[in-house]
Amino acid sequence: MMKKQFNRMKQLANQTVGRAEKTEVLSDDLLLIERRLENVRLVSHNVHKKMVMCLQGNVGTDAEKRHKKLPLMILSQSMVEGVAQLGEESLIGKMMDICGDAENKLAFEQSQHEVLLEKDILDPLNQLAEVDIPNIQKQRRHLAKLVLDYDSAKGRYHQATKSFPSATNAQAMAAKVDMLKEEMDEAQNRMEICKDQVAADMYSFASKEGEYARYYVLLLEAQAEYHRRALASIESVLPNIQSQQDKWMEKPAFGTALEEHLKRTGREVALPIEACVMMLLETGMQEEGLFRIAAGASKLKKLKAALDCSTSQLEEFYSDPHAVAGALKSYLRELPEPLMSYQLYEEWIQASNISDPDKRLQALWVVCDMLPKANKTNFRYLVKFLAKLALESDVNKMTASNIAIVLGPNLLWAKTEGSLAEMAATTSVHVVSIIELIINHAGWFFPGDVDFNVSGVFAMPGCPGTPDVEYGTIERRRPGSQGSLDSDTARKDRYRSHPRVHKHDSNSTVVSASYVVASESVTVKADSLSPQLGAV
Amino acid sequence: MKKQFNRMRQLANQTVGRAEKTEVLSDDLLQIERRMELVRVVSHNTHKKMAVCLQGQIGTDAEKRHKKLPLTALSQAMQDGGNQLGEESLIGKMMEMCGDAENRLASELMQHEMNIEKEILDPLNQLAEFDIPNILKQRRQLAKLVLDYDSARARWLQATKSIISGTNTQALTAKADSLKEEVDEAMNKMELCKDQLSADMYNFFSKEADYARYYVMLLEAQADYHRKSLTLLESVLPNIQAQQDSWSEKPAFGTALDEHLKRSSREIALPIEACVMMLLETGMKEEGLFRIAAGASKLKKLKAALDCSTSQLEEFYSDPHAVAGALKSYLRELPEPLMTYQLYDEWIQASNVPDPDKRLQALWVTCDQLPKNNKANFRYLVKFLAKLAQESDVNKMTPSNIAIVLGPNLLWAKTEGSLAEMAAATSVHVVTIIDPIIQHADWFFPEDVDFNVSGMFSMPAPLPNNVNHLTPPDYDSGTIERKRPGSMVGPDGDMPRRDSSANKLMDHNPRRGNTVPRKQHASPAFQPPLPPVEAAGGAGGQSTAELLLQQPAQVGLGLENCQPGVALGMAALAAAQQLLAQHTEEISSKSRDSASTPPAQRNGTGGSGQLSVGTPVAGSTGPSPHMTRRGTKKPAPAPPKPANPPPIQPANQPVPQQTQSGTPQSFSPSPRPLSSYSPTNLSPTQTQAQTNTTPRRHSSNQPPIQAPNHPPPQPPTQTTPPPQTGMLGDQAEDPSPPHTPTPPSTPPPTAVFQDSPSPTAPPVFQSGSLPRPRPVPKPRNRPTVPPPPQPPAIGSDSNGICSAAFKTMESGMTFKAVGRALIPDIAIEKPVTHLKDADLDTESTVL
After folding, report:
1. Taking a C-beta distance cutoff of 8 angstroms, is the pair B341, B410 a contact?
2. Is B307 on the interface with A (CB under 8 A)?
3. How does it sit in the membrane (chain A) (predicted)?
4. Cα A459 from chain centroid?
5. Distance in angstroms (rounded) separating the CA atoms of residues B236 and B75
6. Per-domain residue ranges for chain B?
7. What are the residue ranges spanned by the domains of chain A?
8. A346 touches chain B (CB under 8 A)
9. Does A207 lie at the interface with B, CB-CB under 8 angstroms?
10. Which are the contacts of A32, defined by CB distance < 8 A and separation ≥ 6?
11. Interface test with A, best of B71, B220, B226 (most A CBs within 10 A)
12. How many CB pairs under 8 A join A and B?
């Protein structure tokens, strides 16, 4: 072995200085392929490394393990746990449940995709860069050594043959020459075999270029397939999750279009309108300056939020009529389109400009009749309430004119409102005249009575303390009959005015006031009965 | 400090139940409060996990995020790789296109993640880390205010109680008033805070749908991302796939024939053409070709080189067995046999037909059903194998042997390998199919084949030149080969030149004819030294032709070698004259025809001699008599051609032809001995010379070779025309037509057809020279044709022909005796030639 190494080094040195010829065993095309091998190896290696970084799962793990480790899978688990915490009945819970399941499926698709990439592209690329090409290069280096051996043996053989004629010991020289000849032949055979092998492998590599290039097509195809399947997975879930979202009824009413709100809640009269009207009917009809006096900001904000929340606990707001009135005004003003609609704005203004009073009323009626069904229903409900409020204007000071002034701009405004202060002022004047007339002639515009408690969910709260029991009892009886309701309402109005007067006069405690009210109510009842009998 | 103290005291009192606690929140608000905490925790967790799903860095802008994505790094690596490999490389192209696609995917991913971060992550984070915590903070503030209120009220109540029992009423009253104010103030603060908190809680609750919507948006964003990525990939894939498909360099071995031909735009598969061309060049005389296995490493290397479509196949010319092995491998590795799976049963059925003629017809029908591509390649291959079989006396590969070693590579059953017995049976059938097809190749595929269909394969330098020029020939051949594939003009240019040389030969014919008689008289003097001189003459002829082609300077040497050839020719003429004297006029004329067939080969030699003799006048006189005889002999090849047109009956007759051809073969040796040794030496010379020239000359060899066989079979062949009509009708009705009765009555028509077919032969290259010699024989034939009394004249003519045949046979017997005595010498010389070839191979191997 040492001798062989020595011979190789000597031959290499001789070739370097040009003293010995070098056998070139590879053809030009093979040399070209050899250079190409190295380039392809480097490029494949780099691409393989970068592609591995693109994967989110752990390389080399099986599908199941990889699936569990994927970030999407962890997200899915987190969502599933969230569902457990929030509960199924919650909308967020439902959404998270469906979304979590979808993310799980996506994680599965991704793990499948990455396993496929690894098997079909990464492993072959790695095989090419780290095994196949290095093997060929290794054989190539081996061939170079064999060529050196052959050249060295040939050199020694030729030298021996040249020295043969002049040698004194012909017999020994002949034997040596024969031995060297055998060495040379053997070296040549080994070189030829190795050369054939290297050439075959190189040709094979060159012919497979199309196959190697196909890896990149496969990558794009795998990615397209992954995205296609992921898309299909999500698209199968989206309709479900979106329908769940749409089915959820509890959504803010303020700022939502009237039709949308009514449709979602299955109502005919908007919740805020009915709620506020019912509460005002209960405790606000005697309140001076109702709709004019501004409520406390915090109370108003709270009430609006509570109405948006559809909570049934509104008892605390009965004691604050101004907050309720403020909420109603806000609701009307915050509608995307006025209750009296944008598209009829011009018609309303034209009708209000008619000089003849009777014709003007008729024109207003015609325009009112053109309102969309939902708008018309809610407008009628509201106007009927406002008319009732105006009936007690001697107490609350809210005449039809006053109501029109404070509420009109919340019922009708131009689309371009705000562009000019003057136009706004003009518009306001027109709207006030329209609303005033309609309230004054509510009975003519909307014949028939209105049952304000259309949804039947609003009950009257009782007074605090012992008297609460008494009033509660009375109130429970009253809803049983319409007639009794009307009479009770009238009675209440009368009674309430007196207790308040007493309150102001006496300045005594709440308890004292309650007692006074109770005793007076008995007396008043006796009086009221007498007039009725007299009338008969 | 006092406030803190008051709060702690109140809390303690409430704990032990000594003081009442004011509950300020309604039940629904309390429920919302509990829910808020759950939502906060869940949102926080979801946000955290979702952030992990992102691959980019959160918070970074679009450009920075894009640069950091793993897909972008992959894209960059691919584009760099594409630059390294170059545009002309398929891998390079694919990488560049793929890299661009990955870059765009990275862009989509970046936008997707930015969108998710803005629309989902940030709002979720806002909810979990700000909104809900703020509400909770207010809640705690409210609790404190409630404590303050409760504490103040307790103190006020206590004060009012002590007024009644107090001695200092005035002071106590003042204190009570002060405490009252505190209570009122605390209550106001509490109410305000409660209102604010309630509003926020109600708002939170009403926004549940908004929060839930985040999860719908996540899915929608993901769907949109995948949709966009899919759209992008689907727009790129057709292009990159088209590039992939347009790449024509793909392995041929193991690829379906149709696919390979389509991709490479060929009609004959590359490996088939390459191997056939190489074998035509150096493998036709190799003993045991296709039977002897090649070295494994050489075979593997050649197959890889063919797969690689490399143009450097020179080194394989010297290893015919490797080339044959590669051809066999290609055929065997086709996904479907060249003769197809679907026709397998038909082939087997055809091979089982007992009647030889019907069997051939059945095979023909099945062969005709092959798909176009399979048929074209099969025809190409069979024509080559037939040519190989023609030299079976040298290479030992008869049609039968070829069928045995190659048959299983051309046709096999789909279920082959399931049972050894079935495989054996299949192999037997396949051999019986391939054997007759090779034997009757010209009947199955009448037209000639130009094996060099793609014009890419050129001949390397002849081996003999290697002896003279070891190093230079390699370089020369390399240069020539490199040039030839590059342009088709080369071969075309060569053709005109050869044509012109032929014309020159024709021009010289008349002059030389005049001098022939004189030299004939001188020839007897050279008869004794003919054997050794003939051999030398043959070798000289070969070298002369080659030298003329490549090294004109050596013409002088050729001249010297040609002189003995001329002497040999003269000797042959003398022998012919003797024969003439022995027969009658009619018989003598026909015997001249038969005797002229061997001299045809001499004429070939003469032709080469003329080329070399262009300079010396004395030498040029020799070939002229050969040319004259060529004219006389050429009518003979014409008859076989009309036999080809009727395909069916020739199929029936092939067997009889073979039988008859057997006899002629026994006769053919006799004429050659007559000319002593010159025919034997000359024929190899012609063969080699033509081998060195274009393949077309190979085809020109066939007529002269076939000539010896055609004269005897001519009678039965010519008899077919009249009975053909009737026989065709009979065949339509009856499958078995009678052959035996027809021969006796056909001799006269034969004579007639002999004349008529010859004029139709002119189109052939060599036939171009026919018109000139024809005037000589035509006048003689015309006197015999005009005789009105055809019946008695025909009868006498037929008898004459028969008698002539018998006489020829007798003379043949005589010649055979002479030939046998001389054969040993010839055998001795041939081995010498082979040995030289072996030496040449060895030297080339060494090189």
Report:
1. no
2. yes
3. Peripheral membrane protein
4. 38
5. 14
6. 22-247, 257-444
7. 23-247, 258-445
8. no
9. yes
10. none
11. B226
12. 279
Q: What is the pLDDT of residue A98?
A: 86
What DSSP designation does A316 have? G
Nearest by CB to B39, from A50, A86, A242: name it.
A86
Nearest to B42 among A29, A85, A248 (CB): A85
For the domain A23-247, what is the CATH code? 1.20.1270.60
Cα-atom radius of gyration of chain B, to the nearest Å?
52
Kindly identify which residue of chain B lies nearest to residue A236, measuring between CA atoms.
B223
Helix ranges restricted to H, B308-439? 320-333, 344-351, 356-368, 372-390, 392-395, 399-406, 420-439
Subunit contact A210:B247, Cβ cutoff 8 A: yes
From residue B566, give the alpha-carbon distance in Å to each of B108, B508, B555, B604. Answer: 90, 16, 16, 12
Class of domain A258-445: mainly alpha
Picking from A464, A487, A485, the residue whose alpha carbon sits closest to that of residue A475 is A485
Per-residue pLDDT reduced to its tens digit, B549-583: 333 333 333 333 333 434 333 444 444 444 444 33
Question: Which residues are CB-contacts of A345 (< 8 A; sequence separation ≥ 6)?
Answer: A338, A412, A414, A415
In whole numbers, what is the pLDDT of chain B averaged over residues?
A: 60
- Among B494, B703, B462, B676, smallest CA distance to B604 is for B703
**Contact with chain A for residue B843, Cβ under 8 A:** no
CA end-to-end span of chain B: 112
Question: What gap in Å lies between CA A470 and CA B582, rounded to an integer?
Answer: 166
Ordered per-residue pLDDT tens for chain A, 536 residues: 677 778 888 787 877 777 666 666 677 777 777 766 778 877 888 888 788 878 877 777 777 777 877 888 888 888 887 888 777 667 778 788 888 888 888 888 888 888 888 878 888 888 888 888 888 888 888 889 888 888 889 887 887 877 756 656 677 778 878 888 888 888 988 788 898 878 888 888 887 777 788 788 888 889 898 888 898 988 888 888 888 777 665 567 888 889 888 877 888 889 899 899 988 988 888 888 989 888 888 878 888 888 887 666 677 787 889 899 999 989 997 899 899 888 888 889 889 888 889 888 889 989 998 899 899 899 989 999 999 899 889 888 888 999 999 889 888 888 764 555 555 666 677 888 899 889 998 998 888 878 888 777 665 444 333 333 333 333 333 233 333 333 333 333 333 333 333 333 333 333 333 333 333 333 333 333 334 343 33
Task: Please report residues of B whose CB lies closer than 8 A to that of A45.
Answer: none
Q: Is A462 exposed, middle or buried (0-12, 13-18, 19+ CB in 10 A)?
A: middle
Q: How far apart are CA B364 and CA B362, in angstroms?
A: 5
DSSP per position, A241-282: HHHHHHH------TTS-HHHHHHHHT-SS-HHHHHHHHHHHH
Task: Determine phi and psi for B734, rounding to 5 degrees.
Answer: -115, 135
Closest CA to B34 of A496, A86, A448: A86
B242–chain A Cβ distance below 8 A for any pair: no
Distance from CA of A433 to the nearest CA of B (A): 36
CATH fold of B22-247 reads: Substrate Binding Domain Of Dnak; Chain:A; Domain 2 (1.20.1270)
Looking at 1.10.1240.10, 1.10.238.10, 1.10.555.10, 3.40.50.150, the CATH number of the domain B257-444 comes to 1.10.555.10
Chain length of chain B: 847
